[in-house]
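lol forgot to send this yesterday, sorry. struct tokens for the thing we talked abt
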């Protein structure tokens, strides 16, 4: 049994790196907040001492100044100096008469000035002012010790949490993902796939990893059988065509079975985009890791792209599973513009490679149709891919695809129009015939399958004649109503 240790898990390394960075920032932020709170507490203590001087000692000091009792003034100033953190008190009287008690020895001093007033016949008589010098060295040292202790405590707690997360990630996820990827790397096209199994103790119920492995195993099995079916169907193409002509009532079932191979190839082409993106951005990450200094922002953007392409690939796999196992359409309320936007996102890599401008004209309000969303997506994917392949045969001019959805007489009309070379007049009548294709390597079931899927949803598809100016396909679907 191969040992799938954590050192093989690049995803685990990035997981722990970002966990450490994030946890360190949180620990630092918490420490700063705690130190700031302690600093405010220390300042409040100094303010309390100043209030004690103003409320308790200032009145007797003003009386001593009024009678000009030197010994009493010095005694009261000495009492002020005896207050914690006060190092020096200086009383300044008119004509620059000064009384000083104490000496400043600290490096950091806070000065506080208090006016000395004597109440004479209900009037305040200003006698001078008092300056109190408070040392801040002990406060700053206390804050430094407090901050160091809190930082150490938060860092220790964070380190234990991160180590525990690392152990959990490796034990529950990382080693199994590595096992899955290594097993998939051993798969060869045309060979019967080996079922992927995980070395896991069945302590928990069927979870996401089990679901992922089951989906991959099922997909490999379907691809394997579909490849063999496709070869057999290619050899029997002429026989099937004669049988379809002779037995029209079997047309729908036969076209669906043949259409599975086209759908498999369609999803393979869709997966090529995000997988190519993952490969490119992974190579870019490796280049950025070897570059000095390390540009974390660029690396983070590249990793975000890897994640986005991975999510897109997973979405394509999930959609392929649903479409391949579904038979009858499940019609619900669908926002057609959202579905178009989703399909454009799936094909964004193909569109960007072909340098095609896509114009998606959306209405001012949502346009809802009554359709099966998965089958509708497949129809749009087929039509858009045909448009992209048609535009690849044209060069020199600006290449564009225009998509719009409007409401007409309780129906929704979706127009998909390109400025390619168009479709010859002689081919237009046979375009929706099963096994008829304008491409050399095409099975000729794409448009036929589109027509069947739309028919099952109560819709239809037509071609607008634009010979030499491109192609325009119109999809008619019933509008969704609450009645």
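and heres what i got for the seq, position by position
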């Amino acid at each position: 049994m191969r040992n799938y240790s954590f050192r093989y898990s690049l995803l685990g390394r990035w997981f722990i790196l970002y966990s450490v960075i994030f946890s360190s920032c949180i620990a630092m932020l918490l420490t700063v907040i705690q130190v700031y709170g302690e600093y405010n507490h220390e300042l409040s203590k100094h303010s309390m001492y100043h209030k004690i001087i103003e409320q308790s000692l200032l009145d007797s000091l003003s009386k001593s100044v009024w009678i000009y009792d030197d010994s009493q003034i010095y005694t009261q100033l000495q009492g002020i100096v005896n207050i914690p953190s006060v190092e020096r008190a200086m009383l300044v009287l008119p004509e620059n008469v000064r009384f000083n008690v104490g000496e400043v020895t600290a490096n950091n001093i806070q000065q506080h000035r208090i006016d000395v007033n004597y109440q004479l016949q209900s009037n305040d008589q200003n006698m001078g002012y008092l300056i109190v010098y408070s040392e801040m060295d002990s406060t700053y040292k206390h804050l430094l010790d407090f901050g160091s202790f809190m930082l150490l405590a938060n860092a220790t707690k964070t380190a234990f949490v991160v180590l525990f997360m690392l152990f959990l990630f490796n034990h529950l996820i990382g080693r199994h993902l590595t096992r899955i990827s290594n097993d998939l790397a051993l798969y060869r096209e045309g060979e019967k796939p080996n079922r992927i199994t995980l070395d896991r103790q069945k302590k928990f119920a069927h979870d996401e990893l089990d679901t992922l492995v089951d989906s991959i195993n099922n997909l490999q099995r379907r691809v394997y059988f579909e490849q063999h079916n496709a070869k057999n169907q290619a050899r029997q193409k002429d026989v099937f065509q004669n049988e379809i002509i002779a037995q029209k009532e079997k047309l729908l079932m036969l076209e669906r079975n043949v259409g599975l191979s086209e759908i498999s190839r369609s999803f393979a082409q869709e997966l090529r985009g995000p997988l190519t993106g993952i490969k490119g951005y992974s190579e870019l990450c490796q280049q950025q890791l070897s570059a000095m200094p390390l540009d974390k922002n660029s690396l983070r953007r590249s990793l975000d792209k890897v994640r986005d392409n991975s999510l897109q690939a997973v979405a394509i796999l999930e959609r392929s599973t649903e479409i391949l196992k579904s038979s009858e359409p499940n019609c619900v309320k669908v926002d057609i513009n959202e579905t178009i936007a989703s399909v454009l996102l799936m094909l964004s890599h193909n569109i960007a490679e072909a340098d095609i401008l896509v114009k998606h004209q959306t209405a001012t309000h949502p346009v809802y149709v009554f359709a099966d969303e998965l089958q509708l997506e497949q129809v749009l994917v087929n039509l858009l891919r045909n448009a992209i392949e048609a535009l690849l045969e044209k060069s020199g001019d600006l290449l564009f695809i225009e998509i719009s959805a409007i409401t007409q007489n309780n129906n929704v009309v979706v127009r998909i129009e390109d400025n390619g070379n168009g479709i010859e007049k002689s081919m237009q009548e046979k375009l929706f015939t099963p096994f008829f294709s304008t491409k050399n390597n095409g099975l000729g079931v794409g448009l036929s399958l589109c027509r069947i899927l739309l028919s099952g949803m109560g819709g239809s598809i037509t071609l607008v004649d634009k010979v030499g100016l491109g192609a325009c396909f119109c999809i008619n679907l019933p509008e969704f109503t609450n009645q």
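Confidence is low (pLDDT under 50) at residues 1-6, 247-252, 440-445. anyway ping me if u want another try
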